[in-house]
Design brief:
Largest sheet: 7 strands, parallel
Helix content: 40-55%
Structural class: alpha/beta
Strand content: 15-25%
Length: about 260
């Protein structure tokens, strides 16, 4: 087995399922040292065990990424346990579907807290480590929704557009630090449990369109960024133009 990232220090939030879990396993195969964080203890335990089957060093932490103090503690643990961080993958995301005025404001706020503010909080905590080291890779899970707004998912669209702008601003601020990389990942629809967990005020059953990506496809793209960082990575479809055209319509919903 090729272990081209042996010893690389990686932190993944949202690691208990979906893209985060698939990425944890992909890094474990490459020999990375892992700290996995999420709210779900059972899911984290299962993914950690799977990673350890590949001989990976894995630590888990139960963390609510909307809690700035908890993110600070996670970052301190990473520094103390691994001596630093080479790559941090911010992978938490939630959604709520429905006409904007029909969705309770508290649900919109929750989406913004998870999809935008938590990523900003994570970056705020780990960037001092990167600057101290003089290197590091921040990987931001955005989605094609950062370019094309989805009707009936206004808060999701706001969070993803905001997250893309946040990354671009950070990239500009860090332009004089050539070994610190801000990387954005823009997958199309991905077949994860997220759709089942999304708030749904549409009165219909949500479903992914045909051809939704397996999470392992996105995980491969993230691992590639550890080898060769790049500003923007699009996953799914042959080009940006096709992606924008294909996903200009809202997520399908069908009546029960």
């Amino acid at each position: 087995m090729t272990r081209s990232l042996a010893g690389r220090r990686v932190v993944i939030t949202g690691a208990s399922s979906g893209i985060g879990a698939a990425t944890a396993i992909a890094f474990a195969r490459e020999g990375a040292r892992l700290i996995l964080a999420a709210r779900g203890e059972a899911g984290l335990r299962d993914i950690a065990a799977h990673c350890q089957e590949f001989g990976a060093s894995v630590e888990t932490r139960i963390v609510d990424v909307t809690d700035a103090e908890a993110i600070g503690e996670l970052t301190r643990f990473a520094r103390e346990h691994m001596g630093g961080v080479d790559l941090w993958f911010s992978c938490v995301g939630v959604g709520v579907m429905g006409k904007y005025q029909d969705v309770p404001l508290a649900d919109h706020v929750q989406v913004l807290q998870a999809n935008l503010l938590s990523h900003m909080t994570e970056a705020h905590a780990v960037l001092p480590i990167f600057l101290e080291q003089g290197r590091g890779t921040w990987v931001n899970m955005i989605s094609i929704g950062g370019f094309v707004a989805t009707p009936y998912a206004a808060a999701y669209a706001a969070s993803k557009f905001g997250l893309r702008g946040f990354s671009e601003a950070l990239r500009g601020e860090l332009s004089k630090n050539p070994h610190i990389h801000i990387c954005d990942v823009y997958p199309t629809f991905v077949d994860t449990p997220a759709i089942g967990h999304a708030g749904n005020y549409t009165g219909a059953k949500l479903s992914y369109p045909p051809g939704a990506l397996p999470p392992e496809k996105v995980a491969q793209a993230v691992v590639k960024l550890a080898h060769r960082p790049r500003n923007s990575t699009f996953v799914g479809g042959p080009g940006i133009g096709m992606k924008l055209l294909q996903f200009a319509t809202p997520m399908p919903a069908r009546r029960c």
